[in-house]
Specification:
7 helices, alpha+beta, elongated, disordered N terminus, Lipocalin, 43% helix, 283 residues
Length: 283
């Protein structure tokens, strides 16, 4: 019996000692696993934080916006998509990569879109350039000072082009970033419709009164008769405006004017100043 009790206590003591030795080892192993897990996840967290900071910086960074002075001619009647456009930078610009480019640097662009002039009536039926019978030109900047641009940089919408030629058509940039003639097309059309409507309302006398009123108005302001701004290329514009006004004053004359009146093609000359900016990513 004595030997049995001694063996029992020896076995119990051995079990306790073994458990005491194994427990620290298990705890140590678990600690090592946790340390390895922490070390493994830290770089991922750092990468995620870095990417988030970069995305946030890009989101809050102001759009790149600058002026250029053209040094090459862009003739809307002859230009083709892909033709180069050369200009001089007028403002210091910080590129998306952090580089600064000073004024005077060479700016290289290209023609991206060309739309020729059309009749006023065709413009009234055009879904792409509704009520705009004049041509349009699209341009984007490819590089500044030899640095290629990754994003799309286009003429800033709702800005005006500073012209160097006196008597040149006033140009601006529409909401799509295309350069076109700036004018009140709705106002011109409304005036023609009003005179034609007055002819109908006046009855037989309107056949005489309407053309006279239209002729006088066209001679005084040729832009009314042409349905667009008048340029230095429109020779004898006041005389032509009179005859165009007479036609517009006839009953239904606004339809005749819509067929005969045409817009003008866009031409940019060296010295013209254009404001460019990065295309907005908003939809």
């Amino acid at each position: 019996m004595y030997n049995f009790h001694m063996r029992f206590w020896d076995l119990t003591l051995l079990t306790v000692v073994s458990a005491a030795c194994v427990a620290p080892m298990a705890i140590g192993a678990d600690a090592d696993k946790r340390q390895i897990a922490v070390q493994g996840t830290a770089p991922l967290q750092a990468t995620a934080t870095h990417n988030g900071a970069t995305s946030f910086a890009s989101a809050v960074a102001p759009q790149m916006r600058f002026r250029v002075r053209l040094t090459s001619l862009v003739d809307g009647a002859l230009a083709k998509v892909g033709d180069p456009v050369h200009a001089e930078l007028l403002d210091t610009v910080m590129l998306p990569n952090g580089h600064y480019i000073g004024a005077g640097a060479h700016v290289l662009g290209e023609v991206t879109q060309i739309d020729l002039s059309k009749s006023s009536l065709k413009a009234d039926l055009s879904p792409k350039h509704w009520r705009n019978c004049n041509g349009t030109i699209g341009i984007k900047v490819k590089s500044i000072g030899g640095h290629e641009l990754v994003g799309e940089t286009i003429p800033a919408p709702k800005t005006r082009i500073i012209r160097t030629e006196k008597g040149a058509a006033p140009l601006g940039v529409d909401s799509k970033g295309e350069i076109t003639v700036v004018y009140n097309s709705a106002g011109y059309t409304a005036a023609n419709v009003a005179i034609s409507g007055g002819c109908f309302a006046a009855g037989p006398a309107g056949i005489i009164v309407g053309p006279i009123v239209g002729g006088v108005a066209g001679a005084a302001d040729p832009t009314f008769a042409y349905g667009r701004p008048v340029t230095q290329d429109d020779h004898h514009s006041h005389l032509k405006g009179f005859f165009k006004g007479v036609i517009g004053g006839l009953p239904g004359g606004f339809l005749i004017s819509g067929v005969t009146n045409r817009g003008i093609n866009i031409s940019l000359v060296p010295g013209d100043v254009i404001v460019f900016q990065e295309r907005s990513q908003e939809k």
